UniProtKB/TrEMBL annotation:
It is found in: Membrane. Keywords: ANK repeat, Membrane, Metal-binding, Phosphoprotein, Repeat, Transmembrane, Transmembrane helix. Residues 135-393 form the Ion transport domain. GO terms for biological process: calcium ion import across plasma membrane. This is TRPV5 protein. Gene3D superfamilies: Ankyrin repeat-containing domain (1.25.40.20). The chain crosses the membrane at residues 134-158, 192-210, 231-251, 257-275, 296-318, 359-381. It comes from the Eukaryota. NCBIfam families: trp (TIGR00870). Pfam families: Ion_trans.
Amino acid sequence: VGNTVLHILVLQPNKTFACHMYSLILAYDRNKEGPGSLELIPNNEGLTPFKLAGVEGNTVMFQYLMQKRKHNLWSFGPLTTVLYDLTEIDSWAEDQSFLELIVSTKKREARQILDLTPVKELVSLKWNMYGRPYFCFLALFYILYMVCFTMCCVYRPLKPRTGNKTSSRDNTIYVQKMLQESYVTYEDELRLVGELITVIGAVVILILEIPDILRVGAAKYFGQTILGGPFHIIVITYACMILVTMVMRLTSTAGEVVPMSFALVLGWCNVMYFARGFQMLGPFTIMIQKMIFGDLMRFCWLMAVVILGFASAFYIIFQTENPENLGQFYNYPMSLFTTFELFLTIIDGPANYDVDLPFMYSVVYFAFAIIATLLMLNLLIAMMGDTHWRVAHERDELWRAQVVATTVMLERKLPRCLWPRSGICGREYGLGDRWYLRVEDRVDPNKHKMMRYTEAFKAQDRNNYDKGLEKLDISRDILYKKEPAALSLSRSTSRTSSHRGWEILRRNT
């Protein structure tokens, strides 16, 4: 019951009352016998009161709980050294990491805890010492891996075509080699080494991604932008396309160019994932994700309806015409692709003025140009501009959350020998086996004096101004003619008191 009350207090809107009641319940808990503490008992979701305060974004309760956990090491003048208990904060050897819970929640208030002490200092320590070097090395390794895969695709085994053409539009001169013909020369053996590296990399990607999907859940793993949801979908699809290409190569099945093309596009697009490690590029990848999975997904539904309607109309119009003179709409799939190019203004209106064009082509193309080019494209630009304005206010905050998520991911994936535990063991200071983070804080007394003086001068000016207004209200008729002089007197009095106050402040500084 006491643990349930503690969880309820974390969710209370009255923060001051919740903190006092929290201390009162823990005071009774310490008086009772028993090794367990109410603060360490999780709820049904596996969250202790401390983790619940972070997930809910309750910064007041979080700071209150952190003040209870800190130990002042020493103080010398304005310098103070504090040891913060990292229990439940550090993601090292934690199944349900506090940092991962914060970055995976949808509440914006929770991400504000990343700027509080000691979470900010802990993340900065981990990222600067281990996270950034390992992440840059991983990015370089992935780029070299993609270069190897690209070279294997460029020099894939092909042979000249020996069969006859099936139609006048058939333009194929090379075909895929059989498996027995693909690995004969020395160049083929070099390509085989690159293909083995590519397949091993795809298998490693699946081995690393599948456990996280089972642990976190597919909805949260693929749906959270901060956790890299879209990029996880891209890299898993890329690995599957590599395995499909391998099967088609081993079985000598024609058409390996289809999964190979998808793998090349997805693999190189996944390079944008590593932009989150750089402050110059990280916020822009967030902007791209928001636009693609927000505005562009909604716009694609409208675009598909328009393209289907006008592509069908164009195909019907040119169905009776000679395809040699007007080849852009010679069949229905080509009509869809040509209409898509017209929609994005990639090409101009296809028309051969050496022959007579159908009258309905001009009418339909006029309506298509008005609806697609003038209306819908400008609507998409306006939607993306609105999204940019909304996301621009929090993109830096989202980027810092992405850095935290990347740090937790690297810490979970890498061996313990490459990522030692951060902080100081409490045994060095006689505080037990818990780990602490040492934070040095500087308190400037002159700064606090300046703030007190400034508030005092503002209050004095405000009182003088209020007194002047009261005098004007009481004797409005009498002072009507003397109003300029009274206002001048009030301003001179305020200016004199402000001048005297700022002189004291200047001398103090």
